[in-house]
Amino acid sequence: MARKTSRNGASGKRESILRAATRVFARNGYFNSKVADIAREADVADGTVYLYFKSKEEILHSIFDQNMAEAIAAGRILIEKLKDPGEKLRRIATLHLERLGADRDLAVVFQVELRGSTKFMREFSAAGFAEYLSLLRQTFEEGQRSGVFRKDLSAKLVSKILFGALDEMATNWIISKRKYKLEPMAEVVMDVFLNGVSAS
Amino acid sequence: MARKTSRNGASGKRESILRAATRVFARNGYFNSKVADIAREADVADGTVYLYFKSKEEILHSIFDQNMAEAIAAGRILIEKLKDPGEKLRRIATLHLERLGADRDLAVVFQVELRGSTKFMREFSAAGFAEYLSLLRQTFEEGQRSGVFRKDLSAKLVSKILFGALDEMATNWIISKRKYKLEPMAEVVMDVFLNGVSAS
Amino acid sequence: MARKTSRNGASGKRESILRAATRVFARNGYFNSKVADIAREADVADGTVYLYFKSKEEILHSIFDQNMAEAIAAGRILIEKLKDPGEKLRRIATLHLERLGADRDLAVVFQVELRGSTKFMREFSAAGFAEYLSLLRQTFEEGQRSGVFRKDLSAKLVSKILFGALDEMATNWIISKRKYKLEPMAEVVMDVFLNGVSAS
Amino acid sequence: MARKTSRNGASGKRESILRAATRVFARNGYFNSKVADIAREADVADGTVYLYFKSKEEILHSIFDQNMAEAIAAGRILIEKLKDPGEKLRRIATLHLERLGADRDLAVVFQVELRGSTKFMREFSAAGFAEYLSLLRQTFEEGQRSGVFRKDLSAKLVSKILFGALDEMATNWIISKRKYKLEPMAEVVMDVFLNGVSAS
DNA sequence: AATGAATGAGCATTCATTCAT
DNA sequence: TATGAATGAATGCTCATTCAT
What three-state secondary structure class fits A152? Predict the structure, then answer.
């Protein structure tokens, strides 16, 4: 038991720093956050941060990578058993806004802090983001093949349109002064989207 | 005459700094750009920048404000004479991507550099951006009243969906390794969008 | 006059930092000296140091380069009019210990702080130091040609022996607890040295 | 037996760390060498270093102390049976350069790394170095009494001159780009030196 | 004796901004 | 208006040392 706690304590420290960083970045912005702030929030010494991450920037990237990987994995499992491509996209869209809506700090980091550099945007594009877009595109193409979606549309472009719409919902939710649930927005987006891309 | 030249010289210097800053921000990112870089690029002394702008941040905001105001004004003129709300939206969308597609540096600043702070995102929301969304919403509502657009949709949400889709087109164009024209993307977006929101 | 003061003030700032650094390095050692200490001692802001020097290390190198160049120039002038090579070496040796003996801080930097890195030792060797050794060697060779010095000795080795002996005098003077004049040591060294290398 | 092995193992570890440190210091310089580097090179854990040495600085001092003590002991044995003071000094000088010439890493530590701090230079002076100089001085005085060396010279100064000359040979050997044997330099130094200090 | 994870003090350098000229 | 030398606050990262195991 003690050993298990110890083991958890060890790997838990990495997680702890990651969660602390998400809170701190969301609160102050990436550039205004000091590594010392993150360390204090995670209740570790400054130097300890560097036992788990090479740099402040790597922390930011790790937040993205880890969450993106989880989201994609969750999405794949969710649609695995479904047949209807439209329904699949609906589930993915809902999951997208559900996850961000469940953790405002994470949402701020994803919608705001991660966007501030061309450098990151390129890696962002290259890494998990491309895979996410790819998941959308493949599902759309499936629908095109099965005849439920218009074949005259570029699946690639269409998936960007869908992503852009969802992304804007999330960003607006972040900066909005009003409190509302993010996840239901998925329905509206999918209503317009599916209506726009359906065959016949 | 001398005074007029002087006036022009002065305002010309402000413009010159703004253009220089756009290039520098696009090249190095806002946080990595030094005021001294901007001054050198604009061919003025460091201190001169502060005769026209209160801070480095104000330069960034001015780039946004000025371009946003121009874009909205241009958009209003463009749709003034048009009757069809769908056509109006199409023109606005095309203008949106046309302007960004015509100036990659400006596009980088708009799509990347301006996104990196919650602080700015809020002001961004408060200022010209709200007005732009409002232009989209009013035009959509016009279409709802005239019966061409579905009345069961929230105009506010729908305008965000459209903006998000266009915004994503622009961002992808920035980070894409491939060279292509941005402006034609407006057609595809409008195709899906109008199909999705049209009544009947 | 005011302009002259101003001009001096400008270039004087560089000198001022150099002198301050010599004092600080001598007092605390190079590695324990903070740039902030140097700035305070020179009565300028921390950042001002970097208007005149690229790095802390460059300050150390500049102290060496500048003083070495001065010493060599002074040495050349001193021996210019002399005929006897033995007398020339005697004058150089005296100047060597005179200069170091006149400025204990400078001596500490030369004898101790500059020696602490192979990196510097190589540059040290490559730069002014080589020129100094060369001055000794040429003078010795002159004496060999004129028949006053033994021809069976390697001028290069002999000049290192002389330098080593003088260098050790200086180092011992630095670390000695007793107060004594450094410069007179030159006589003793030259006595043994000239006696050791004289022909016949 | 087990205990003896254990004892050997233990003291062997101390030696191992000392040798590792000599390599590491020679390679990177004292200030750029991390205790972790030394530990890795010695194949022990970081903390283990502190079971044998109080601090990083103590390691450096131990390298000096241990080698200096060995060198002096070896020197004493070497001259024990000799009669001629000149021959004694010759043997000591040769041993001096022989030892350094046999271990370049050790030579780098002795000639470069140990010189970088006034603090150490003082202790350096106080400790084994003084004893070494004293050995030279006593031998020289022996020669003065027996009439082979000039009586008008200060034995203390003369021993510093000899040390300085040998020291410079060693330092030059370290920083030289050319590969050559260090030990033969002793002959040349002794030639000049003995010629310079011999009576009549 | 040995380990190595954790600590936290310490610092060179940058750069937005000011202001005397 | 324009200059650019001077300022000084601000911080990511390193690494010698400790100590619980």
Answer: coil
